[in-house]
Amino acid sequence: MEIRWLEDFIALAKTRHFSRAADEQNVTQPTFSRRIKLLEDEMKVTLIDRNTLPLSLTPAGEVFLQSAELITRQLKEAKIKCADIKQQEESQISFVATQTLFLSFYKEWVEPLCQSINIDMDINMQSSSWSGAEFVDALTQQKCDLMLCYWHPAINFVRDLDSETYEHITIATETLIPYSTKSEDGTAKYQLPGSKRRSIPFVSYTEGSFLQPVINHHVQRQRQVAHLQTLSENLHSVSIKAMIKEGFGVGWLPARLMADNLEYGKVAIAGSEEWHIPLEIRLYKSKFNQSANVMTLWQHLQLQSKKPM
Fold it and tell me: Do 277 and 152 touch, CB atoms closer than 8 A?
């Protein structure tokens, strides 16, 4: 059974005239009559008494009319609701960010900006378990509109976004700093660069993360050799932060993530400025993504990025 057959039947019940009902439905009378007959065949009952003038409904037709009106009304309401959902989904911006940036940057800066310009952001929280390359794949495969990430020349997989297809905004700078728990005298328990006789336990990131390639690149280029013994590898900065606070070793963490802990906690900077690593925080999108909300947010972010952070 087709929905238009129900609409035809309702039009016929209203006009009680095949020709006028056909005009209302914008079809020829033979086509209209054939569809009414198909509806009766489907229901296996006569719905229209064709022997009366004007036409009338049979008792079965009267019962069927109530159901036809209910079904078509519910369908129209469902279409409106589905259209609203589609419009909402299309207006949402799909956004991915590393767990660290979500905790230390997105909540404090990006989210308030979106709220101020009335833009709905759809955060993919599953991305908190992704490796670095998976973020790039999500953007290149159009699984997200925007990607917030750290950038440094040593992060090779982000170079896939250097083509003319993508654009970015550097919305802030960040610094990776080595931290350690404090000794009783208030200084760092572990201090870079360490020594051959006594290597420093190193709480590192996994190789597939954004930050471990950066740390490797920087450490290898220092005049002093860092004597590090890898204790564990972790995907998230918060895991490294927890291990550092418990005194397991040295680890590099974004300064934003450690601001309060450094001032009030039991952690200390574990190396001089030569061990500090500058980073950028970048937002990437495809140049072909011309969604109205994406472009509005992008323009606001471009203006905001020019202000001191």
Answer: yes
Question: Residue 101: phi, psi to the nearest 5?
Answer: -70, -30
Q: Provide the 10 A C-beta neighbour count for residue 186.
A: 8
145 touches 285 (CB < 8 A): yes
* Helix, strand, or coil (residue 152): coil
Domains in the chain, ordered, with CATH?
Answer: 3-87 (1.10.10.10), 91-173+282-305 (3.40.190.10), 174-278 (3.40.190.10)
pTM of the prediction?
0.69
Which pair of tokens denotes residue 274? 């030569």
Alpha carbon separation from 143 to 84, 164, 214, 217, 291 (Å, rounded): 22, 19, 26, 30, 14
* Tokens encoding 10: 């309702």
> Along the 309 residues of the chain, how does pLDDT read in single tens digits?
788 999 999 999 999 999 999 999 999 999 999 999 999 999 999 999 998 888 999 999 999 999 999 999 999 888 877 765 565 555 578 889 888 888 877 777 778 887 888 777 777 777 778 889 999 999 999 899 999 999 999 999 998 898 889 999 998 899 999 999 999 888 899 999 999 899 999 999 999 999 999 999 999 999 999 999 999 999 899 999 999 999 999 999 999 888 877 767 789 999 999 999 999 999 999 999 888 888 888 888 888 766 655
The per-residue DSSP string of 215-253 comes to: HHHHHHTSSSPP-EEEEEEES-HHHHHHHHHTTS-BEEE
Look-up: residue for tokens 């229901």?
A: 43
Q: How far is CA 242 from CA 59, 97, 143, 230, 259, in A?
A: 76, 21, 32, 16, 14
Phi–psi pair at 227, nearest 5 degrees: -95, 90
